[in-house]
């Protein structure tokens, strides 16, 4: 009954009344989106009276076995209704990660990938701590994205997954190229899609959280999406302020910071200057670094082949720093980033750029300085939770301690 009920409702919304859906919402968005915020607000307002009814209906269906609450206390299956607050996002993806060891006094939203093996246990535990649980969903690949029926089918599936698993929202990860010229229709289709998605999720329960992943700068990486219009509809744009050092214009280049402070500030300011409200931006930081193999190491400049770095978890970088580094930890004061050089067992010289509590604090401080919505890391899996030694336990604690608490 649960899926068929919601499928019927959404079919009415998207198929029988396409003039309202694509004609009223999508067409206005595609023609400039000047009234996007008002359109979305009206949809939510019209459904506010039904929020409690829909929520009660969903709970009733769950009790009948359609989506049984897996928690010891049925109240934990209710979505979190905490109003807007400063956020600390934590991502967990590995089934082996001991997420109960996280600092739950700081986490406000935890997110994972779809079909995470322990999502029921994670949901129950996080809700008991007052934290939202959302999931990362990778959007349709082009060209299916342009087809309204494919978008609607995708929304149906994701919405039902959210209901079935008693989650609190969805994070959209769309990392396909949309050039400034020649792909305007793709950008418009993405904006229309986010409007349709928001109408369904927020129409069911206005407390659902919707976020969208974006590169470190709105003008980098060939992703010219309409971030301004999207920011009017959704709760947050998660700015991935990492993977910044990818020089590929020349045959050889040199290693540099994964998440330099100056580049991070520059990228966030570019979002704000474009018209995205600062309180819609989450600054995403890396709990990992890049291991670069040097063709030459001259005055601490590691010359290497572009885009040849290997992503390395913080816990693995700390092992290399302790066992193999040449000269220990170094500090780039301009970029506020640590790095070190080391030799592998074959004598090959490497340079590792990463982030640690000292460098991360500079980026966390941007939240009050730039009036941002909060912070988040990619990923909480990158630390050592084994308690195998006092050193690794102290390193893990220091990383969590560096996070702000809101």
Structure overview:
The structure is a single chain. The protein is of the alpha/beta class and 406 residues long. It has a single domain, classed as TIM Barrel. It has helices at residues 2-16, 18-30, 36-63, 119-128, 148-164, 184-204, 227-233, 261-274, 314-324, 357-364, 366-370, 390-402; strands at residues 87-91, 109-113, 132-138, 169-173, 209-215, 236-240, 253-254, 281-286, 288-293, 296-298, 301-304, 310-313, 325-332, 337-343, 349-353, 374-378. It has an eight-stranded parallel β-barrel. The chain has a five-stranded antiparallel sheet with strand order 12-9-15-14-13, covered by helices on one side. Strands 7-11-10 form a three-stranded antiparallel sheet, with no helix packed on it. Helix 5 packs parallel to helix 6 (184-204). Residues 1-66 have low confidence and may be disordered. Belongs to the glycosyl hydrolase 18 family. Keywords: Glycosidase, Hydrolase. InterPro entries: Chitinase_II/V-like_cat, Chitinase_insertion_sf, GH, GH18_Domain-Containing, Glyco_hydro18_cat, Glyco_hydro_18_chit_AS. GO terms for molecular function: chitin binding; chitinase activity. It holds the Pfam family Glyco_hydro_18.
């Amino acid at each position: 009954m649960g899926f068929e009920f919601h499928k019927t409702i959404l079919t009415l919304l998207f198929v029988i009344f396409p003039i309202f859906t694509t004609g009223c919402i999508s067409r206005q968005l595609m023609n400039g989106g000047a009234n996007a915020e008002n359109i979305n607000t009206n949809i939510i307002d019209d459904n506010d009276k039904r929020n409690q009814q829909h929520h009660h209906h969903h709970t009733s269906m769950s009790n009948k076995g359609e989506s049984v609450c897996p928690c010891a206390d049925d109240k934990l299956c209710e979505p979190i209704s905490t109003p807007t607050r400063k956020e600390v996002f934590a991502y967990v993806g590995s089934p082996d990660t001991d997420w109960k060891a996280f600092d739950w006094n700081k986490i406000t939203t935890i997110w994972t990938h779809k079909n995470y093996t322990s999502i029921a246990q994670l949901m129950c535990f996080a809700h008991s701590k007052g934290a939202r649980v959302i999931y990362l969903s990778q959007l349709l690949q082009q060209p299916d994205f342009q087809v309204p029926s494919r978008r609607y089918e995708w929304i149906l599936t994701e919405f039902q997954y959210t209901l079935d698993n008693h989650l609190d929202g969805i994070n959209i990860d769309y990392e396909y190229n949309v050039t400034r010229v020649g792909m305007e229709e793709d950008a418009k289709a993405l904006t229309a899609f986010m409007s349709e998605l928001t109408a369904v999720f927020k129409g069911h329960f206005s407390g659902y959280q919707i976020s969208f992943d974006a590169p470190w700068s709105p003008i980098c990486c060939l992703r010219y999406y309409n971030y301004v219009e999207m920011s009017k509809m959704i709760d947050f744009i998660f700015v991935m302020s990492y993977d910044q050092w990818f020089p590929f214009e020349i045959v050889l280049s040199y290693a540099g910071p994964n998440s330099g402070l100056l580049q991070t500030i520059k990228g966030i300011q570019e979002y704000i200057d474009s018209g995205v409200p600062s309180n819609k931006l989450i600054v995403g930081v890396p709990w990992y670094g890049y291991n670069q193999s040097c063709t030459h190491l001259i005055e601490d400049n590691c010359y290497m082949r572009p885009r040849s770095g290997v992503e390395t978890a913080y816990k693995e970088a700390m092992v290399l720093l302790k066992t193999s580094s040449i000269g220990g930890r170094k500090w780039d004061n301009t970029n506020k980033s640590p790095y070190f050089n080391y030799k592998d067992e074959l004598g090959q010289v490497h340079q590792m750029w990463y982030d640690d509590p000292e460098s991360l604090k500079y980026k966390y401080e941007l939240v009050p300085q730039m009036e941002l919505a909060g912070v988040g890391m990619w990923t909480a899996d990158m630390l050592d939770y084994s308690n195998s030694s006092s050193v690794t336990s102290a390193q893990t604690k220091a990383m969590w301690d560096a996070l702000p608490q809101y």
